[in-house]
Amino acid sequence: MIKIISLTQQGQQLAQRIQGFYQQKGQPNICELWHKPQPFSESIQQAFKEGDQLLFICATGIVVRTLAPVIDSKHDDPPVIVMDELGQFVIPLLSGHEGGANQWADEIAQNLNAQLVITTAKPYTQPVYTIGMGCERGCPSSELKNLLMQCMHECSLTLENISNINSIDIKADEVGLMECATTLGKPFRVFDKTVLAEVEHLLSVKSDYVYNTVGVYGVAESAALVAATQLTGNPAELVLNKVKTKKATCAIARSYY
Length: 257
Prior knowledge:
With 257 residues, the chain is of the alpha/beta class. Helices cover 37% and strands 25% of the residues.
């Protein structure tokens, strides 16, 4: 869930404009407006601890002092963005690369025609997102599509952000996967287990069952990571660990050009 926090009337108006962007994208329930939430610190800190994406329209100092007691690490904290009430500048404050705050801030800045201010040590570059999927034989395309859309929603991504859908080579003829990719208008690619094994160290969990079945410790995460790396030539990272249904798995990876 995205929470937009405003403290002034002008800030509230800007928050409503941003909320409108998500409504236009067909995501009316992803964004919640908090105008002068009370009790302020407790409400904000609880939302942060629950993993909500936070966009503040106020002074950076207020955000820093409020979140300081609950900040953990860049690998676990949710993305936090700060904006001025005029909507001129968009600043990713926490979890820029790891949590996706840089990409999120870039999207907001483009919608508002605002200035993106990146302060992370690594220069901001264009991100690439890839989907990895695995499934039981005969899994219907509808289940795969629903799972994929759910995963994108969790990462605040749209189909426009996704480069391709990927799996292991034994799924090259999987009708459901091919139909899902065709329906969504995305390329479908597969990789053999030798290539997928190269990203084994990046997996969130290793499944002995999957390894004994197909020769790799995870299909969805491995395929997403390999695809992202091959697109950019740079290392990739998981932005969404494997999500499972009874018949399918899905993961999302990201790399930067």
